[in-house]
Hints:
The structure is a homopentamer. Chain A is mainly α. Chain A contains 9 helices and no strands. Chain A has one domain (19-284).
Amino acid sequence: xxxxxxxxxxxxxxxxxxxxxxxxxxxxxxxxxxxxxxxxxxxxxxxxxxxxxxxxxxxxxxxxxxxxxxxxxxxxxxxxxxxxxxxxxxxxxxxxxxxxxxxxxxxxxxxxxxxxxxxxxxxxxxxxxxxxxxxxxxxxxxxxxxxxxxxxxxxxxxxxxxxxxxxxxxxxxxxxxxxxxxxxxxxxxxxxxxxxxxxxxxxxxxxxxxxxxxxxxxxxxxxxxxxxxxxxxxxxxxxxxxxxxxxxxxxxxxxxxxxxxxxxxxxxxxxxxxxxxxxxxxxxxxxxxxxxxxxxxxxxx
Amino acid sequence: xxxxxxxxxxxxxxxxxxxxxxxxxxxxxxxxxxxxxxxxxxxxxxxxxxxxxxxxxxxxxxxxxxxxxxxxxxxxxxxxxxxxxxxxxxxxxxxxxxxxxxxxxxxxxxxxxxxxxxxxxxxxxxxxxxxxxxxxxxxxxxxxxxxxxxxxxxxxxxxxxxxxxxxxxxxxxxxxxxxxxxxxxxxxxxxxxxxxxxxxxxxxxxxxxxxxxxxxxxxxxxxxxxxxxxxxxxxxxxxxxxxxxxxxxxxxxxxxxxxxxxxxxxxxxxxxxxxxxxxxxxxxxxxxxxxxxxxxxxxxx
Amino acid sequence: xxxxxxxxxxxxxxxxxxxxxxxxxxxxxxxxxxxxxxxxxxxxxxxxxxxxxxxxxxxxxxxxxxxxxxxxxxxxxxxxxxxxxxxxxxxxxxxxxxxxxxxxxxxxxxxxxxxxxxxxxxxxxxxxxxxxxxxxxxxxxxxxxxxxxxxxxxxxxxxxxxxxxxxxxxxxxxxxxxxxxxxxxxxxxxxxxxxxxxxxxxxxxxxxxxxxxxxxxxxxxxxxxxxxxxxxxxxxxxxxxxxxxxxxxxxxxxxxxxxxxxxxxxxxxxxxxxxxxxxxxxxxxxxxxxxxxxxxxxxxx
Amino acid sequence: xxxxxxxxxxxxxxxxxxxxxxxxxxxxxxxxxxxxxxxxxxxxxxxxxxxxxxxxxxxxxxxxxxxxxxxxxxxxxxxxxxxxxxxxxxxxxxxxxxxxxxxxxxxxxxxxxxxxxxxxxxxxxxxxxxxxxxxxxxxxxxxxxxxxxxxxxxxxxxxxxxxxxxxxxxxxxxxxxxxxxxxxxxxxxxxxxxxxxxxxxxxxxxxxxxxxxxxxxxxxxxxxxxxxxxxxxxxxxxxxxxxxxxxxxxxxxxxxxxxxxxxxxxxxxxxxxxxxxxxxxxxxxxxxxxxxxxxxxxxxx
Amino acid sequence: xxxxxxxxxxxxxxxxxxxxxxxxxxxxxxxxxxxxxxxxxxxxxxxxxxxxxxxxxxxxxxxxxxxxxxxxxxxxxxxxxxxxxxxxxxxxxxxxxxxxxxxxxxxxxxxxxxxxxxxxxxxxxxxxxxxxxxxxxxxxxxxxxxxxxxxxxxxxxxxxxxxxxxxxxxxxxxxxxxxxxxxxxxxxxxxxxxxxxxxxxxxxxxxxxxxxxxxxxxxxxxxxxxxxxxxxxxxxxxxxxxxxxxxxxxxxxxxxxxxxxxxxxxxxxxxxxxxxxxxxxxxxxxxxxxxxxxxxxxxxx
Lengths: 301, 301, 301, 301, 301
């Protein structure tokens, strides 16, 4: 997530440099063509690029709006994960009559730490990084061994939750109502995981990007031909300026579309997982509560 | 689902060729008309096609946005199917006290395999393909015989689920709370199936497409008349370029509207069903887990 | 629901004929006025109708989009009715321990047939047709007599459902959990009915239609005055073409707004009710399953 | 709610008269200024008001769309109130084993009548009218005395519902499951009440209205200056026509924003409450069912 | 929340003064540049700023609409908090059989006062103010001591709720169904808290603001160059007027985006918390009910 500070120039520049260069060459070529073929090229009325500019704006407005929705949905999913992680621990603490009498693998601490591990692991998995990273801090040896055999690590962790809830019920630490209520929370966690995976795995319709580019180039060509006789070489910076803003807009939208791609515009899943760790450990009365994750220069991961 | 790769030229071309040809003839005819009837035709001010271009853009923006919503809703439904399939198996594993003691037709494996079969069968049925395809891999003989008699195969599979849950309850393998909780999951599956069928069976208001075409042709005619004296035969490629982008946009939106039509832009139901199969078999501890479905050249089914 | 086929010309024509005639007279009158009062009327710059055209487009885009939402919500409500009808029967079959021992008025078939009757009756009531039409096929004499006395027939049918569920519980055919779970399904059916009635009874803000017309006429007047010196009698077909598309658009939106009005653009409630009948009868193992409702020439009811 | 009939001219006129007068003076003043200062004022190109007109349209489109959403949400809330009122009575009738044996203050009729009272009272309270109006028809003396002491009458009525449910449970007229199910319905009623109050008490961001006015006046000034040399005194009716439609649009949106303000554009809460009364009394088998509320000339309250 | 009254000029002025000054200098510099370099600068056609103006409008429309959604969602969250606070107290009063027999730390008053404290504390925490402010009025000493040790005070208060519910169940003041039903309410409160925190902590994509500024300046430059020969020094107030409205619009949207920032445009969390206090105390029959919070001159906090 980009922070509300001044973005470093290099961050913006790195993004738009290829586009600036490409548009620069296009406008220079147009300029040269016009000098040598002045009498053969048509004088296009400026209403045409105006219409095309309107179409680009509407297409980009659609893209911006849908990609914002994906980004905001991703953030909502992780908000729901925060809420349900807290809820899970509050519920276990409310429901389990005598937590002290449980063996360590069924303790309230075990499910809490596994929930923290699930958050970190899901964040890593969504970003295509190692989903086992740092999990040994929160999981026991047998748990680590169990999830090693699964392709989908977070799902395996939910399976361990399910198993613990089953055993708590069989030992009568919770009753049937409470088992079902805890299962409800787990259904929501499973749902949140699936929604994040859906956003990750669904490609935004590729054709729209193609169409945006088609429109932008058509706009540039007609605009360039429309300006043939009026402004001469001033056309180059002008085309450059306008085209660059459109490309930048398209690119910003494209980045927001994929909020789990290990980029500064990502949903800050690591920061959120750390905050969940802090909340849950404080609910447990744990003494080793870590500090919140420090932000990078202009973004949070 | 189209992948985030370069689309093959032939895929794009196949789509727009008829449109290109039609628009080509239209503009040539206009061109000829103008040469022979130059003094009789009016010089239409270019503001008119500008207004019409704006109306086309807004109408297309509406169409793009609604068809994206249908496509995204279809994807959400299949995300929900993924989540509830996982949830169903997690729940059965949590609730059934002693799975080993059950007869094979009531076993956890039976409901899991039937759930996998349901996903494949629903995907096929939505695409209008054979809903029994490959089901013998997952279902027993009596189950296959039972669903053979139903018009709606996935509904018949849900009926078998319902029957198994009833018998698990009657044998006291699950209690009344757990029966109701499993029933909740089945309600959600039934709901997801119905939502996918609704998207499949509801035709997007036909009149809007008619209107888009009407506007595009009105736009082309006024534009062509408006350019009468300025750009001569250059009009042909210009009209071609602009009209083609509008038609392409309309066509892209139309494809997204119907995400279960056995086309590359479909919701990738087969891929999702395969992923569900992998997840569920790993939860069962099954040894024969298949590989994920390989993608086609530029899309996934 | 209009089908995805070529709409018959007469269907489109019947709709737009009055508008075509009205606009024709308007433009002819303008034409005559201009010939006799040429020196007295102002030459309005074409930017003015351009601005007005933009406003019309945005207002129409709003109207199209909201009426589509109403239409889509109506379709969603009927999708939910399909799902909950199936769910109700699946649940009754799962929950009732021994269906055979029940008296016929409490049998699974009784509630299933009453649910089918409810779907047909709700569809008829929404369209303002006789809500008792054909119900004698599905209901017993005492049931028919009971609902006769109610103003809202579908609500009376739900009351009969409620009564059957109460008696099933009192005879211990279902337990308390199952009663509550069935009640949940009934809450959803009651909700769907209320949502459909809300769409039916809520008039889309009338002022907006007025405003659209005001804008269209203002647009036509300024455009007509703006074209005074350029295109002469060609103005008539031009105004006709543009105005007609705007009126058509407004009219299409208006039709979609009211999806229970016994028109070809209606939500196809009869078709859906018939499909529910087929599904439910097959779940019962009934032998007399009817065929799906045949479509009309270009639409489904 | 405005009906789908011809709105009386005086209703429309009363609304726009002040605006018409104000715009009339503005355009006359501009006209005079131009006659005396013709050489000193700049000739503004008409592209400027075009851009401003586009901005106004987009701002108004936003306002129209958000105010429609508020209005539609208000209608949805009252739709939900209809559904949950019906559901409450159906549930009480299903759950309470032997209604006849209850004392009158705990009878099914008592909760039904109190629910009707709640609907009327909430409607009055939202409109800022007397929330006790006519309640003596539905409530007993002690109930009237109890709610007299509360600032929020509908909340006090829900409290009486809660109390009745508690006593029904203590007398074992309902069991624990049924108590919780009835409580669910009450949670939804409490939720609907809060949502209506939220719409009532939240002021739409005031700055946007300011901005719309700023844009409209800027538009009028630049347009007036842009037309300096072309159309002379015809400018007055032209400005009048265009400005009036914009003001009308803004005003329509503003009215829809506040659907509980005792105006013809209100959500028809009294009509809905009366329909609920009819439905609930028919479910009770009551003999004194009132007629539906008659509509006013062009609206329903 | 800004009230529906005339905003004081100084409030609007304070906001836009820096922008007015900056745009003033920009236009003066352009004016001077043009006087000294008149022959070297190009005459840009006015269609260009028109296209850019359209793009600005669409980008601003997107920003306005998304920031309104955030603001409205924040208001909805606090509406839900109102509803669930009322629900919690109604439920406790319904469920707890004999409130009088409870020790004071488990009394209905204790949970009610803690719920009031939670509302105030959450409001303060969201605004970055002291979350312990005034809590001693509602909480006992041990409760104050307990939450002192937590980073997230409202979460600690929910933990105390959870603990009280656990002890009510262990003392058999509520049964298992009722415990689960109360837990449901607590899940919703935890959810509302998390949703408010999400809105607070998620920065709106920074790049879009950059882009809006880029477009506005590009628009101003091309517009200024386009007006070179027509209107002379009149350009300064004209640019000033147009740019100011765009900046004002962007700024209004930016303020709405962050509804928990201790500004007059905030969601009025203190007012809402006070209203909840009044409602809950009246439900308890408390005698010391405070008055509603008085509004500030033109806003409510």
